[in-house]
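Subgroup meeting minutes
Present: P.N., E.W., G.H.
Scribe: E.W.

1. P.N. recapped why we're keeping a running log of single-chain structure predictions: easier to compare across weeks, and new members can see raw inputs and outputs side by side.
2. G.H. added today's entry (253 aa).
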Amino acid sequence: MKTSKLSFIAVIILAIIAGFASYSYLSSAKTVIYLFADDYSAGTPIEPEMLMPTQIDTSVVYEAASRGEALYVTSSNVEEVLGDYLRTDVLAGTPLMSVHSDQIGGSGAEIRLEDDMVAVSMHADNFTVGNPFISVGSTVNVYTSYQIDEESITELKFQNIRLLDVLYAEKMNESSGSPTISGVTLEMTPEQSVELQHAVEFGSVRLALVKGGYYIEQEVPAYRMHNVIPADEVIDVELNDAEGNENTDTSGE
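Output recorded in log:
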């Protein structure tokens, strides 16, 4: 009985010593984290020159992780977030946390989206977007085509629309070596988003890469089939067809 009590006391003493040793280690151990060197807005790519390394107690890092809060980005995993986009605005001196990365804390399109705008995704390919090397932040014009009363109509629908995201297929284009695009996400007003969805559903949509901020001030008229075939030629074709039909009817008699 006495031996058991001594063993129990010894276990408690060892546990206290181990706990004290761990506390002492964590209190003295340091971990490298990173602070933002300046103020940066949401959507800014995270680059090495934006960060200042500093040391804090390792216990603080573990404590934040144990509470389920945003994790500190440390020297052991900072490479994983470089090149990601900021999910929120940050001030100088703010510690870089996992929540700041769009890849960890949210979708890239969500981070780059301006207030009161809508992110609209559509299926696309290298031909639809006009350039296989189009990228996030590029601006495009949007063209829509419809079939109305047996006439094909194409018009410049929207100008200078920003690309929030570009989706890629797994395979590269073997002939050109360019990436194969499978979809894009556009930043639009709510009204534009409805019109684009309608065009995707009932017509066709094409994009054209343009320089950011460039607008065509004058109205660009819609392009119709009679722009391709002059009206007098259309009349001649119709007359020839009519005469051909008459000759066919006569020969049939």
